[in-house]
Fold this protein.
Amino acid sequence: MIYLNGSELTIEQMKAILYKGETIAIDETAKQRVLKSREHVERIVRDDKTVYGINTGFGKFSDVKIEEAEVGALQINLIRSHACGFGELFPEVVTRAMTVLRLNALLKGFSGIRYEVLERLAMMVNEKIHPAIPQQGSLGASGDLAPLSHLVLTLIGEGEVLRDGEVLAAKDVWDKYEVESIVLQAKEGLALINGTQAMTAQGVVNYIEAEKLAYASEWISGLTLESLRGIKDAFHPAVHEVRGFKEQSDVAARMRDWFEGSELMTSQGEVRVQDPYSLRCIPQIHGASWQVLNYVKEKLEIEMNAATDNPLIFDEEDIVISGGNFHGQPIAFAMDFLKIGVSELANVSERRIERLVNPALSEGLPAFLSAHQGLESGAMILQYAAASLVSENKTLAHPASVDSIPSSANQEDHVSMGTTGARHAYNIIANTRRVLAIEAFCAATAVEYRDVEKMAPKLREKWQEIREIAAGITEDRVFNKDVEKIAQHLMP
């Protein structure tokens, strides 16, 4: 069980919650902060003070005072009107992450929400009740208003939930558990939707999948190196120490570990003097992508533990401040950076695929790895497909964060588009996973034309993993099914 307190949630813990079914609980000290913050809100309502989001309208309506008898209706109206998302639903793993992250942010104790609402969010995580949330509709500032409103619709029994891919009415789910839907009170609707948890949730899933891919790209490129009689000298630690980038040295070290004991790798001058960049520069290229991943992880872990709603209640100082922590610019930049870093893993992988299938570049391998050249095309169109995916990535890698469209009658006149960036990053990761799966599929066949018995022991284990998923290219067949199986194998 993982205890949430609003301040110490990590990516590693999110992996356990999202992919291993780890349950969560609320830390007792966080509970006390939440209770104190709620008392502050109730005091404001009781004293009839005018405070944004508690007894005023929202956005351009912030100057409209709401009477005490209507503050509950204000919150319900907010959720109903803002639940305006469109398009395909977020995967369940993303909505699960969204629920965890919103709960964790509210546990910081600056939001004025009732503790029982947070208990319901924890129940949703532990019982795998995942809100049905459309992916499109967020500007990434004033929070992820549309996606998070769909999450809150689930709480109040008006939305839908996903359970193992099936869409169910939230009210029916609450009836099954014999609990009432939540009735929102002062500030609670705003507290629940004013945050960056849609982009951050998608960002966390992106990071976890991209990290797995980055590690996989090393053993996959190792299979290609063996297939092409790669030169091991380029991975010598001295080469990378003098450059000074830790990530580059780390990749080189892992690559040396992968091809330790290989009889297929060569030395300078044994077959050729130097390899092309897509082989020789694996530590430099992949290492740079690891720099991106490290940056993204740092920013995500900060945001995962941040108070991102508005206004914020500082009980010790007896003040409520209307600020802008909901603005998603830090995560927008991180997601755009992630798009570039992951795209490059696909770019260089596609270049290695070309060397595996092109007889002018493959050091004696059959053209397109075809068992019957001319009669059969072999891996010819696999390289086409990889090129198509890489090209699509280049379009998706255009930064979303450089765009902004004013909203709410120009009150919200600059937005981050961070959720768009996070969604596009996920598409790039999916494309890159297929490109790397194509490389793995081709390299596994190519290395068989050398001598499997001469492979490095660790790489031979990986070759065997692939062979348990997909057979080699012995005759033409529908190869995309094999590639998809390998791609699935590369998922967390």
